[in-house]
Each structure stands twice: as structure tokens, then as C-alpha cells.
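Predict the assembly for these three chains.
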Amino acid sequence: MSDPFLIGDSLSGGYGRGVDILHSCTISVKEGEIAVIVGPNGAGKSTAMKAVFGMLDLHEGSVRLGGEDISHLSPQDRVARGMAFVPQNANTFTSLTVEENLEMGAFLRRDDISGTMAQVYELFPVLQDKRRQTAGELSGGQRQQVAVGRALMTQPRVLMLDEPTAGVSPVVMDELFDRIVEVARTGISILMVEQNARQALEIADRGYVMVQGRNAFTDTGEALLADPEVRRSFLGG
Amino acid sequence: MDPLNAIVAFANFVMLPAVAYGSQLALGALGVTMIYGILRFSNFAHGDTMAFGAMATIFSTWWLQAMGVTLGPFPTALLALPAGIAATAVFVLLTDRLVYRFYREQKSAPVILVIVSMGVMFVTNGLVRFVIGVDEQRFADGARFIITAREFKELTGLKEGLAIKSTAMLTVVVAIIVVVLLFWFLNRTRTGKSMRAFSDNEDLALLSGINPERVVMITWIIVAALATIAGVLYGLDKSFKPFNYFQLLLPIFASAIVGGLGNPIGAIAGGFVIAFSEVTITYAFKKVAGYLIPAWEPQGLVQLLSTDYKFAVSFAILIVVLLFRPTGLFRGKAL
Amino acid sequence: MTLKPRDMTLFLVVFALIAATGFLQSWNVALGILNMGLVSAIMALGVNMQWGYAGLFNIGVMGFLALGGLATVIISKPPVVEAWDAGGPRVIFALLVGTAAIVAAILAWKRIPAGKARAPALVAILVVGFFVYRWLFDPAVAAIEAVSPARAGNLGGLGLPVLVAWPVGALLAAGAAWVVGKTALGLRSDYLAIATLGISEIIIAVLKNEDWLSRGVKNVSGLPRPVPYEIDLQNSERFVERVSGFGFDPVTASTITVKLAYAGLFLAVLLLLLWLAQAALNSPWGRMMRAIRDNEVAAEAMGKDVTARHLQVFVLGSAVCGLAGAMMTTLDGQLTPSSYQPLRFTFLIWVMVIVGGSGNNFGAVLGGMLIWYLWVMVEPLGVALIGGITSGMPDGFWLKEHLLETAAHMRLLTMGLILLLVLRFSPRGLIPER
């Protein structure tokens, strides 16, 4: 078994000096694979992802990217190392146009970004039509596409998504998942937190079920979907 | 009835002064709105920053004049502007480094920053008075008029004259150039877009790798330039007196709020709304009325409010906007 | 709440500074500083109620002080009978009509359902109201101002004892604060700031321009006093006899007696207010205020009407400022509208509150007295300092001339620096809130 590309290894920590929210939690994703974190409300799913991205104070454990320890890096530095993060809320620049949003995603890049932008437009054709509109004028699903597109503009090696389908209709959700699979096929690792556990696990190479800040079950997506205990407790039968 | 003379009188006493004053207010309000959009507080030191910028420019002007350098028909101050802007930029960057940055790192509440800006206002005000004194300074040179009232009368044969002060015209032209440049910068350059992005969503800007300290630095430099230009134009048009700049704070903030704090287009619109209302309401319409309705001999000045109440105009407009449209004419927040 | 030994020491230091001025310079100067310091302390108390208790940002203190000043004129000056006959009732009627127009406009806005008719109706009421008001107002004002303009030219006042003006000043300020608060509270905090800044400029403009009311820039002098006049004391045999018995010069003694009388009056008011302010702060009302300040959202969720509470404390604090303004004008014995400068009468009060300790009444009092002392003393100190620096320079050297000339402006610089340093290194002030 090859070493995972990105791993948050036995992470414990919380916000500031507060109590720990995570307890020895391990999350990893291999190159080009999709890893999904699911679990009940308040289980620490988003917190685990933020810990991997450096937005949490770690008391124990380490985060390694491509074998290098990046635990001490700030989120901004992690962006420069090839990690991209799409927050759950306020994940677009609403007063900027779609195209400007994408440009801002590529802010750190000094090379020609038109190729990447074309790829994003290819992935989300609707954005090309609306590229002169401000993001604030778009629908919820389109805005999520802008958010993912903005993150992709950094040409990341890992794309982290915090509940990308929150608040969008089931049809849009299915489409977003399709796009995410497409992104993974280009070799980008994907780590995401999802409320819609069943659908998310269906596309997941690896699934993490979290309960109260701990790993409860970890397996392939398929295996978790088949696991009767996981089904009973977390997938509603 | 003599509408032509009435229009000329109106243009001479209301339109032209209001356009010049509106340009000055717009430039001032742009500075306030930029600070609000990026640094997220109302900068009460802005009026005094304008005074500082004007002062720095005045000194360079005097130096240039002493060296025998002039700009012919244009005021020498125009040539001295870059030096004034540079000095003001250094000054505001210094205040940022010594004062504001600490609170930014602490993530202090905006109201704390407002009080801090009050301290900076005191210091700047004291500094300006200390260096140049409280007296009125005139530094305008070059041609005084593009066309004088007499020339206009001879040219058109009208009874009423239209005098176009060169400083008023200059104010408008410079303001237009500055605004075009600013909007080009904000909408077309990478740095400008990153500033708008930062103003829109600070967290996401950080996630995109935008360096906040660089954004803040560029903002201060732009604000220094805007404040200096506004201060110099106001000084050329009226005259330089430190206390006047402090008093501009109310109309400038009224302009920025009326337009929508944080919105540059709003700041410009707000500046002209305030300026036109102020000049129109405090102008004595006796002359204009005389041309329009010759039979009517008004007893008073036909003035809605005496000029001493010009603050009341800014204030009244402000209150109306706060009551009916608290976000301003153009939705505020975000460059 | 009791004062800690450290706080007591701070107060003693301030009194010692003032006493030192008495010993080194003159007791007249020292008592002058003390009196204005006491008034400043009351102003700081008022601002502290708004900022310290509730986090409201009022930068129109000057306007409320000036309203207090106006109250002293209206209450204590004897009426100018000819002026009243010339146009008094008409002016008052005009003002009533003006107010009625505004009230009618507000009612119209509330009563008429939103639609096409509402805005035109509002505008019509205001425009008609304005012209009727001006039609009534202008001739009356002209008539009043024509009555012996060199001596009067205004309506004068009610001729009541000047002490009555103090609570009336508080009422006037409270009324203005209610109007401002009603419109600007509940919006963003900087909007309140700008609105208060605006109203204060307007109040000053009214005082400067409405000659029929306050004689404008011609000033109103010779306001009656609540304490005896020096000259009467000097003419009183008993007084002269008594002070001579102690070996004092009667002239000096009379001025000091007058100043001491003022100090006694001011101290009594200050202590009363301080007691009330402390009681309020420690009452359930005060606790609720601070709870709202610390977390508006939570307080609102618990069913507190945040805007109404804010209005309450804003009006109260402004009333205290109005009272202080009336006291100050009484002390000066004259109303000089052009002397109201925002840096001196708004922002300096803020320095007092922040240096003293926002949220703490004792802190505000301490800050008021200390900063006032510094404000007075920095100027001579600055001049002395500059004199020292420039003593080595030749006479007539431009830099020396310039420095000596501008040394007086050291004040603003110093006050700004004090404010910035306190905010940076001791943001809770000398006597922090607890």
C-alpha cells in the first residue's frame, strides 16, 4: 500500500486554548482519489478538515503532504504548497465577476493562467456564459461551481471541499458530484466533508465516519455503504 | 422674462461652484470609502490627512517657486503634487506601522479603530498647526481665470457674466483623471482586483494567497494620493487653512455614507449630491428670480438657508438617507 | 464599589498637582484649573455613560455643551421687553408652526399607506410648512434684531436664577439627543458618530447666527452669577475686616472666595451625579446596559429592546453634558458661540474618558480633572521647552522664530499622543472598569 499523499495523522486539538474537539483523528487521501468525511452533526467533520488545512491549534499529531511535515505552516503557505480549500460559506467574491473570481484564485501564480481557466470553463460550461456577471447574481449551485473553479485555479494537488452541496437541489448535487469525480480523474486528490453521506460515499474511494471527534469507521466507500452498522447508525437503514 | 441671463447667473453662482466643490468632496469621500472598504473603519483623521497633504505640497510649491520654476498658466502646485503625495504616503504608512497595525493584528472592533483614528487626527492636526501654523496660506499662482465675467459679457452681449476660475476647471479635470485612473486600477489590474477581493471577502482572499499587508499598504498609498489631491484642489480653489480641513469631515462622511460606505461610485455620486444641495440651498436666488419673473421684486435674498447653515444641508441629507436607505444610494461595503 | 488604595493615590496625585500650581504659581490659577476640572469631570461622566456603559460613540459633545450654555442665557438673562413686544410671540408661534410641520410630516409618513401618494404628501407638507414658517419667522426676527442691536438685539431670557438653567440645560440637551438618537441609533455605530458630529455643528451654527436668540457672534456677557461678585465682597466691610484679620489682601481674597464658592457648588453637583451614576451602574439597569454592550445579539435574543435602552442611556448621558455645559457658561459668565471648537469640547472629553478608564465613573472623573490640568499646563510647558531648545539659536533665526510662534500648538500633539499611548498600552485606562 503506497503512502497517502496527504495525511492528518492522529490529530488532537481545538480552537485557541479551548478544550480539544478532535481526539487522535486520522484522515488521509491518496493521489487522485476521493476521500469523504461523514458523520452526524457536531461530530467534528469540518473541524477535522480545518485541522488538516492548518486552521486549528494542534496539540498532538502531524499533517504531512507528499511525505513532508507541514504541521507548522499557515493556511496561506499550504495554499502555496498545492492545497486548495473551498469553505462552506462565503466561498466566492460576490461583488467580483465570475472571471475575476477565477483570476483571484490564481493570484499566486505568475505563469499564464488562460489554460487553467479554459479547463474550468470546460468543467463548468455555465460559468463561461456568465463570466462577466458578478458571483452574487448567480444561483446557489452556480456559485458553488465558481467556488470550486476558484480553488482549481491554483492548480492544486489536493482540493478540500467543506460541504460543497449544502443548500443546493438534489439535481445540482448529483451534477456537482459528477464534476468532482471528473476533477479527481485529472489526478487531483479530493478531501471533502459531506452531509449527504450516502451519495458522497458512493463516489468515495475512502470514507471516514466520525463521531465525537474520533474516527468511528474507516474503509473504502463501498465497504462502508455495505457495513450494516454504518448503515443503521448513519445512513438511515 | 429673460431665461438666458437667468441660466448664466445660475451657472455662474451655483453650477460651477457646486461642480468644483463636488469634485473635491468626491475625492475626499473616495479616500474615506477606500479605508472603510479595506481596513473596515471610519477614518476620522482623513480631513487632517488632507491638510497634511496640502501642507506638504505647499512647501514643495514654495520651494519650486523659490527656484524660479513655474508652470506658466497652471498653478505650480500641480508640479509639486508628486512630492506632496510622496510625503503624505510616507506619513500615513508610518501611522499605519506605528498605530493601526497593532489593532489590525489584535482584530480589534471597528469602533476601537475609530477612536484610534481620533488620536491620529489630534496628532496630525497638531503637527500641521505646528509646522505651518493656523493662518490662511495662499499658494495658487498661474492664470486666475479661464474667462472673466467681463470677457464673457463682451463675448455674448449678455447682462450676466460667467466667470470660469481656472482652479475650478482644474479641480474638475484633475478629479476626472484621478477617478478614471482609480477605476482603471481597481477593475483592470491584478493588484486592484485583489484589493476589491480583499474588501469583499477577507478570509477567501487569504485562502487565495492575497497578502493582506500588501493590500493595506497599497490602500494607504492610494488614500494618501487621494487625500493630497483633494486637499490641494480645495486649497487652490478656496485657500489653505488647517481648520477648514477638519470641518470638511462632515460633508465628506455625509458624501461617503449617502453614496454607500465602501462603494467608490457611491462616494463620487454622494460628493456631488451633497455639493449641489449645499450650494443650491444656501444660494440667494434673488438675481435668478429677477430675470425669470421681472415683475416680482423679492424683498429678501430668496435664500432657503443662510450659508452658515451649510452643515445643516449635509446633515439633513444624511439623516434622510439613514432613515430611508441606511446602506446608501449604492449598496455599500465592498470596493 | 469602593476605591482601591491605588485609585485614591491617583486622585491625590491630581490634587497635589493642582495644589503645587497653587504654591508655585498662584491660588487663583490653581482654583481656576480646579473649577474647570470639576466641570470637565462632569462632562466626562456624561460621555462615560454613553461610551463606557453602552458603547455608544457620541462625537457631538460640543453641541450638547453649547445647548447647556444657551439654557443659561434663556433662563438667567432679564427679558428685553421691547424686543418681546416687537416680535417675541410671533417668533415663538413661527417655531411652533415649524415643529408642527415636521410632526405632521412624520405622522403623514406613518399614517398614509405606502404608495404613490405618500412621498409627494410628505414633500408638500414640508415645503408648505417651510414657507409658512419663514413667512412668520423672518419679519419677527428682523424686528427683534432691530431693537438696540449694540446692547441687545435679542429676546433676552426669563430673568430666573441662574441655577435653574442647569437642569434646563440638561433638558435641552436631552431633547436634542432624543431626536438624534431616534434617527441614528440602531444603525451602525459610525453612523451615530457622524450624526452627532452633524447635530453639534448645527447647534453651534444656530448659536452663531440666530442673533435674536443668543446674539450670535456678538456674544452674551454679564450673565448673572450664583455666587457673590468680587467687587461686592471688596465693598463689604465685614469681608474686608475678616480677611485682613487673617493677613490677606482683600482683592486677592475676594477672587479666591468667589472661586471657592464655585468649587463648592460644582463639587456638590459632581458628587451627587457620581453617586447617582454609581447607583445606576450597579443596579440591574446598569448590569443590563453592560450586558447589552458586551453582546448585543445575545441581549436582543433574551428579549431586551437594545435600541430603546440605547436611546435611554444616550439621552441621559447627553443631559449630563448639557448640565455641564450650563455650569461652564455660568462659570465663564458669558456665552461666546465662536469659542466652541470640536477639538476642545468634543475630542478632549473623549481623551478624558479613555485615559481615565472607560466604563468606570471614578475613572471618568479622574480623567476629566487630570487631562484638564494637562491641557492647561502643556501650553506653558511647551513654550518653556521650546524656549530651552531654541535658547542656543541666534535671535531672529527663522527656525527659532517659527518654533516660538507655534509652540502653543504642542497641546493637540500632546493630547493625541496621550490618547494613542493609553489606547495602545493601557486600553482600560487609569482606573479600569471592574
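The mean pLDDT of chain C is 89. The radius of gyration of chain C is 24 Å.
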